[in-house]
Amino acid sequence: MNWLKVGNIEVARVVESNGPFMSIYDFFPDATDEKLAPHRIWLEPNAICPKTNMLIMPIQSYVVKTDKFTILVDSCVGNHKTVKWYPAWHQKTDNSFLSNLSNHSIHPDEIDIVLCTHLHVDHSGWNTQLSNGRWVPTFKNARYILSKKECENAAHLSEKYGDPTYNENVLPIIEAGQALLVADDYQIDDSVWLEPTPGHTPGHCSIRLSHRDENAVITGDLIHSPVQCQFPHWNFKFDTDKELAAKTRLNFLKNYSDCDVKVLTSHFPQPSTGRIELNGDAFKFKYDK
């Protein structure tokens, strides 16, 4: 992907993987053949595989270069992570992410700030890497700016359910002294700030970018697929608070429709970026060319 511009801010996608992820009927429990039928013409084959009904989803990050900072937003799955619920990610060894970061002429040591929209494994995995049997920060010169609420939730999931994400992707950052735990509306500067978008997780945040009257927002997982523009009430089965997630998603679509804000999605089919438009009683996503 070429760098896109938001004023003088430069943004590029860094893709770790891309392809079929999960059946749409498994991902969205409210999905039915009847509801999908009128929309398959625009969903297939880029968003849904017509033969398998699998959602096509990239796993990716965004690099944001401002006048002051080089920022990584989300850090994909990473290597050697414990992801038993999804075998393709479990203990994987694949350096595509670091290679694709290098393709943008960026070395991990050049990252000044890491922002995680939330702390699921596919958004925080490369926070750390395994070195001599221990987890260490991948971006050794970076401040990891994380929602305090989101970190508390990740620690709770670790303690109550044994979710390894906190111990593998978050705690080593804190112990290394590189974590800054902040409120969900934390502002880095006039160009970059967090916007609370809870529901998928308690401390989920989108990332707002603004410079010279140009604006963009990085969604994270408040919305996973363009089909949710048509059906905003469809929740991912793993959304923590489904009622709140649907409310947040609908408000987001209303707030950012028919305006000049660029929408940079985390999991929409490539190129993943575009704008939201009103479409009758619902919405549609107009992709960048």
Beta strands, count: 15
**Any idea what the shape is?**
globular
Helix content: 10-25%
Average pLDDT metric: 97
**Class by alpha and beta content:** alpha/beta
- The CATH topology name reads Metallo-beta-lactamase, Chain A
Instruction: Report the sheet with the most strands, covering strand number, pairing sense and barrel closure.
Output: 7 strands, mixed
Second CATH tier, the architecture: 4-Layer Sandwich
Give the CATH H-level superfamily.
Ribonuclease Z/Hydroxyacylglutathione hydrolase-like
First-residue to last-residue Cα separation: 11 Å
Biggest sheet, spatial arrangement of strands: 1-2-3-4-5-8-9
Number of domains: 1
Could you name the CATH class? Alpha Beta
Proportion of beta-strand residues: 25-35%
Number of helices: 9
Low-pLDDT stretches are none
Order of helices and strands: EEHHHEEHEHEEEHHEEEEHHEEE
Round the Cα radius of gyration to an integer and report it: 18 Å
